[in-house]
Structure formats: C-alpha cells, structure tokens
Amino acid sequence: MARKALKRYYEILDGEEEARYLTSKKVRLDVDLTCGDEELWLVHDTNVSGEAEVQRSTTLLDLKAELAGRTLRSCDLCERRCGVNRIAGEKGHCGVLEARVCSEFLHMGEEPELVPSYTIFFAGCTFKCVFCQNWDISTRPDAGTRIEPEELAEMVETRAGGDGRGRGGLRVRARNVNWVGGDPTSNLPFILDVLRHCDANLPQVWNSNMYVTEKTMRLLDGVIDIYLTDFKYGNDRCAERLSNAADYMRIMTRNHLLARRQAEMIIRHLVLPNHFKCCTEPALRWISENLRDVKVNVMGQYRPEHRAREHPDIDRPLRMDEYEAAIELAEELGLDLTD
Ligand code: SF4
C-alpha cells in the first residue's frame, strides 16, 4: 500500500526517478535576477512545470531562491503575513531572523516509510501551540547555530552517501531530507539556498504545520517530493485557542489540496484528549472526502507538554480508548494508514 501512495518517492529511492529539486536545477531560464518582482514571478510561474529549454545559466531553483529571499523584506512566507523586514532585523510573529539549526541527525522515529530520515530541526515556529512537544526549540528562535548553506549541503551529501549509524552500528544512508522545526516555513530562503548546493538524489520532505501562503506553496512546487503535514484541528475555534492560528480550516484545506497537486503526501493527525468530535472526526472526514489516495498517520503519543496544563481539556495524556476510537474511525473511512 505504501508503494502505491508514495510511488514516485520509491522510484526516486530505486534510482528510477530524480528528486524534484534536481529537475528544477536543470530548467535553465533566460532571466535577469535583478528584474522586478512581477517579471520574476511571471518567469517563475510559466516555468514551474519544467517546460523551459536550456537557454542561460540561471536555473529555476536559482529563481526560486531569489524570490524567496526577496520575501524577507516584507515577510509573508506564512499566513501570519507580518510584513516585517527580516533583513533589516525586524522580527515577526515567529521571531526568526536567520536560519538556525538546533539539530540534524538520521531520525529513526519517523514513519516507517521515511526512516532513516535525515532530519534538520530549525529554531522557531509560525504557530504557538500550547501543547508543543518541541517547545524548547519552537519558542526559542535564537536557539541552535548558524550553518552556512554550503556546509549544510555538504552534510546532506554525506548522509546521502551513507555516513550514519543504524541498529547494530551498521552504516546507513538517509532515504530523504526532512525539513522541520519548529516549522521550516520561516527558513524557506535558506533551504532553497542549501539545495542549490546539493546534488544527491534524495527526496525532499516538507514537514510542516502547512500554515503557509499560496506564494510559499508556489515556491515549494517543483522542489518538494513529500509533504509531511500536521492536520491538527477540525475547526477554527480550537486552532485559534490552542495554536493562536486564525482561519485555520480555510488555509489548511487549501494548502492540502495544493500540496496533493504538487507531490505525494503523508498527513499526520495527533489525537488530542477530549477533541474527538471537534477535531479528530472532522479532520479525518475531510481527508477521506478530499484526499483519499494519501497516507495518513493517526498519532496517539500526545503528552501534556509546555503550557498544556493551563488548558483543562488537554491537561492529561491521551487514553487508549480515545486513540482506539480515532483508529476505528480512520479505518471506517477507508483511510490508508501508515505502516
Ligand atoms: S514567517 Fe515569521 S515573520 Fe514571516 S510571516 Fe510568518 S511569522 Fe511572520
């Protein structure tokens, strides 16, 4: 079943297909990167499907990196749309100025389809989840260290070559690059810059809350191979109260549909205590009605971390019967659950 939903991903792993970002490096454009935004977006949108022929030395990936970098002057990478000039040192809601890496390692605890996954954790997040399980890095945008794009690209190449240790100390190769945080969105310009210096045929995984603008979705198109998304809530009220995120359902549903048009997907849903009717049920139903051919991971590992104790509805671990009810519903709806 995993091979069906993630067909292209497995073809990349088998060497039969290439990661999308590599294709975007082959699309060469007749464009001057000092042109105005409007002209560059026009070139971007007419070439994003990879129809352009070899003409000049600028690649589609170069253009994406340029456009992403320009957004930092009035940041609207995510739907907070802060409009701050991050290059001039103005901080928006996420507080991220430059990309800072908190950790990077071969993750063995992700979905079985993904491991070993070369996971890169950035500091900062565009959400403010009161139950954040990674609050030590998501709430501290200044945590971690700055790594030059060229240096991180080298680390990616090394992991692709098998410089990692698995069970029994065996050398293992990464199956993908997993961009996460916090949330990766604030760091998109940096990520694209890293990929400009990479050559490994490794699928790129966008591991995100998906609270991104359509502009960001356009920049990710043709770069990302798997969207690994968090579909946390089934209504706007819970999203507003627990993640301080407005207009959640409209943005989530729009971006999930866009993501599916662009790439393959694994959707995560963390089951929250006391949120079956308001969140689990509507979220899983929407997925079953709109995205039947994607993998879904119904997660039962909720623990009351960070400020969850301040919210009586989520101030305890998830009970087994609550998790079982979520799995039962997912099966009833015919969702394709992860292994
Ligand atoms: S990425 Fe950060 S600064 Fe940019 S719009 Fe989102 S929260 Fe604001």
Task: Please tally the helical runs, counting DSSP H or I stretches of 4 or more residues.
Answer: 13
CATH topology of the domain at 231-339: TIM Barrel
Strand content: 5-15%
Low-confidence stretches: none
Protein described:
The chain is α/β, with parallel strands linked by helices and 339 residues long. The chain has a domain at 231-339: Aldolase class I (TIM Barrel). The protein has 13 helices and ten strands. The strands form two sheets. An eight-stranded mixed sheet has the order 3-4-5-6-7-8-9-10, sandwiched between helices. The longest helix has 15 residues, at 248-262. The radius of gyration is 20 Å and the shape is globular. The termini are close together. The mean pLDDT is 94. Bound molecules: iron/sulfur cluster. Iron/sulfur cluster is lined by residues 75-78, 80-82, 84, 92-94, 96, 126, 185-186.
Helices, strands, pairings?
Blueprint: H1 2-5, H2 7-13, H3 20-26, E1 28-29, H4 37-47, E2 58-59, H5 60-71, E3 101-107, E4 117-122, H6 135-138, H7 149-160, E5 176-180, H8 188-196, E6 204-208, H9 214-220, E7 226-230, H10 236-243, H11 248-262, E8 264-270, H12 276-290, E9 295-299, H13 320-332, E10 336-337
Parallel strand pairs: 4-5, 5-6, 6-7, 7-8, 8-9, 9-10
Antiparallel strand pairs: 1-2, 3-4
Helix pairs in contact: 4-5, 5-8, 7-8, 12-13
The chain binds iron/sulfur cluster.
